Amino acid sequence: MSTRVDAYIWAIRLTKTRSAAGAACRGGHVRVNGATAKPAQPIVPGDEIRVWVNGRERIVEVTKTISKRVSAPAAAECYIDKSPPPPPKEIIAGQPRRDRGAGRPTKRERRQLDRLRSSGFLISLVAVLALALGACSSDDTPSDPNRPNTPEAPAQAGSGPFFGRCGGVTLEEVVRVTGFTGLSTTVDNTSVCEWDTTGSRTGAVASFNWYRGSPIGREEANVKLSRDETNKLEIKGHTGFIGWSQSGQICEVGIDFGADFFEWSIRGDARNPRPIDEICNAARELATMSIERAS
Hints:
The protein has helices at 5-11, 18-26, 72-76, 89-94, 107-136, 171-178, 216-226, 276-293; strands spanning 3-4, 30-32, 35-36, 42-43, 48-53, 56-62, 79-81, 184-188, 192-196, 205-212, 229-235, 238-245, 250-257, 260-267. It is α+β, with helices and mostly antiparallel strands. The strands form three sheets. Strands 8-9-10-14-13-12-11 form a seven-stranded antiparallel beta sheet, with helices on both faces. Strands 3-2-5-6-7 form a five-stranded antiparallel beta sheet. A two-stranded antiparallel ribbon has the order 1-4.
């Protein structure tokens, strides 16, 4: 029996309200079996759900579908929690916080916060030491008055190439490359495309996701936690990662473009498993096509 993903993540208490669960889906913060999920996405036992909430990634495997909120002990019986442990208190304490009344962060400030969060404690420690040394320096040489005293601006979101709808790849090409017969388009917008053989995500699925203004490092870390193997990858001079799980019949390829990145995710039908090399070769070929057709 299936249920909506927004109802499920609220019912098992990953979000405080049903509306917050729907907002997380619409914001692209919920993924089912590696593909971005809409609020009405049906889920069934065996599906993997990843939710970015409260500054951390929650990863759960569905064991029982429910759509009504239950107590914490009852909720725990409906999933297997595969989430990584929360970061140490030292890292949380070292992350920058915005003063009350300062208003919402600008886009630039949000990108800087994302980079700090994803860089880990070591980089935060180096930054603190650099500031301390700079403040204690005895060098009284005046600085260049023509040089601005603001930090270098990060790469602008959306400054990478334009990939076009569905990464510049057609449904017919996805069918040819993956070998999945019966694929139909279930999601088609400017940043996400998904093709499904069943319409309920219980069979083979292929998806393209284009992330603008989002660091690839966080996504790569999530893939490392949820896949059996993850390696660095280079296609047409562009670097990224590839991660796969034979048991889950899934392979994901992410390619970095500065402040942007895209990801191809291919999942085979677990009822008719294929060698994972075939699935990963399809993901690499589709990623290559997207790079070659970018403008």
